[in-house]
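quick one, two chains, predict together pls
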Amino acid sequence: MVHSTAFLRPRLTGARFEGHAIPLEFLRDIAVLKELVLEVSKWKFLSANPDRQRVPRGFVGGVDLCLRDIDKGSVTPVIELIATSRTLFVPYEHHFHEAKEAIIQAISAAERNDDPARFLPDRVLTYFQGFGRSLREGETIELSDESRTLTCRLDLKTRRRLLLASTQATAITEEVSIRGFVTEVDDEKSRFHVRMADGKKIPSQLPEVYRDLIVEALRIRPDGMKILLEGIGVFDESQRLQRIETLENVVLLEPLDVAARIDEIRNIKSGWMDGQGDSPDEAHLDWFVAQFETHYPDDLPLPYVYPTLDGGIQLEWTLDSLEISLRIPKGEHKAEWDMLDTESTQEIEKSLDLDIDADWTWIVESIREDARAH
Amino acid sequence: MNDTTLLYRQVHPNWIQRGRVSSQVFRPTPKDEHKLSVYNGDLIDAQGAWSHYTETLGHASAGVLAVTVQECHDQQLNAFSDPGPFPEHAVIDFAGHSENQIRKKAKALRSVSEKRGWQFQSS
């Protein structure tokens, strides 16, 4: 008779989970959670039974973690511990619950900048290469112990601390999305290099399915076509990207791709204009790219983007005789729209708030109308 | 200088994207006190202006665009020789105009200079 018991209810928070759905790629992380729990349970058993060399045959055989449900209200997958034989499993069940507690304590330690290795063995910490890898900035997996007295949050930062606490983790893998030019393709080794906006060359594996696309991107140099690479990146201890380990998506970018241009602007240093000129703010640029990609449709002409002396950015469109600019000062979410018809001298000025959807709609409709009329 | 005199303006590399320059190129910076520095085309050619700007003055420039004195007048802007810093130095004077007006005049100058095309581009 199948024996099942409620086990974990990890609460997922962040932009991607606000629609009360779990992206399919996140199921990989949940699958690794099972391996992590089983491994820690075995360790708990062996720690409690020092005379044993290995766990009993029935310990993990027939034991599984299953996704039973997804709670409404927030995205909370309901995970149950299931055993095919209650008789064989019950004597060991408490080790699984202890394993869960140890995992929660280790994450909590990482959160406090304490040593997670006090709660989990060195080799087990490497399981966090898989568990939490799909997390993005601003997202967390929240876990609570059974008494709900301890709640921990796994995010990008705590995951890095967990991995760095292990002597066996020589690098950290994370989801990555980079833009750049293909500089060389090595068919024999099935890899290629991409030069990013900061000049750094990143090697990547080259799956056959993307080979033609990558070679095409290389062929149209030196005029160049930037590409977007998405996949799993390997980072060193200083969080510097070393290589793309698994390439999952490749996109040839538009010549005026705004995010790629913003990557170039990111590297501008203070004093860039012959001693004048502030450097841009990374977080401000990230915010702008997210807003632009959310609100600006693909079918409209893309703007040119330039740094401004105050560390902000200025978008510019030339639509026949129309010269349009949208100036966004450093750190601000407000913007100044300025349109001049160089033939009729007609002018339109408007202050906009780029956190407000209606203001983006106004920008989009203005560009659409101007592009159609000219 | 007369109405047809070309006024050469240096373009910082950060203000070019795929060959198109920003209208900021023709807007005086706060340091300029409303006077936009240009080279007097009656006294120096575009390549000479670029060489002077990058080699003698040690500034960054990706190339040279130009507007005429008349095109400045069309925007109600005076342009005159200002040989104080060096003999070929001239200015386009934006004094007396509001920030919004300055932005629009800069756009108009960018537009006419773009139609004229690059006078010199570094390789």
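Strands of chain B lie at 6-11, 16-17, 20-21, 35-40, 63-68, 78-81, 89-93, 120-121.
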